[in-house]
Amino acid sequence: MSCALSTPLSCPHLRFLEDTMQLNHLNLCVSNVPEACSFFQRCFDLHLLQQHKKALAVLSDEHCFTLVLMNPQALQQEMRPYPDGFHIGFLLDTPEQVEQTYQRLVAEGVQFLHEPRKIRKSYGFYFTALDDILFEVSCPLSLQATAPQESA
């Protein structure tokens, strides 16, 4: 797997950021690193780069985003809960990609806060996993992309 930091962003609403600094690394504390590592690989196509026993794993994606999963307890540190409102998000390009990700997560047995729907100017859904961390999966709604219609 290789990634080029100079590749254009795929999200049209973020194209203005092409020449600016981007957040490309996150350290996420979890109580079970192997479980979290497997979850991100299966559900979000991240690739394992390195793992240090049950204490730490480093994953990446094709956009050069690096996710470090760390168990503070394995390093003799306290595991603290994330504050209310903290969440991590996966921004996709189209409502169809949101639906595909939703179906993948359904197959994994994930419990959702709601099905994919229009949320402000986006289409997406939320769920909790891995020590009750809030996840968001969404895409921007533009004039060209509209949310799938609710079935009657």
From TrEMBL:
InterPro entries associated with the record: Fosfomycin_Res_Enzymes, Glyas_Bleomycin-R_OHBP_Dase, Glyas_Fos-R_dOase_dom, VOC_core
SUPFAM superfamilies on file: Glyoxalase/Bleomycin resistance protein/Dihydroxybiphenyl dioxygenase
Any one Gene Ontology molecular-function term assigned to this protein's record: dioxygenase activity
UniProtKB keywords: Dioxygenase, Lyase, Oxidoreductase
Domain of life from the UniProt record: Bacteria
Pfam families per UniProt: Glyoxalase
Keyword Transmembrane found: no
PROSITE patterns per UniProt: VOC
Gene3D superfamilies noted in UniProt: 2,3-Dihydroxybiphenyl 1,2-Dioxygenase, domain 1
Domain VOC: 22-140
Record keyword Lyase present: yes
PANTHER family reported in the protein's UniProt record: LYASE, PUTATIVE-RELATED-RELATED, SLL5075 PROTEIN
Protein name as it appears in the record: Catechol 2,3-dioxygenase-like lactoylglutathione lyase family enzyme
Organism: Thermosporothrix hazakensis
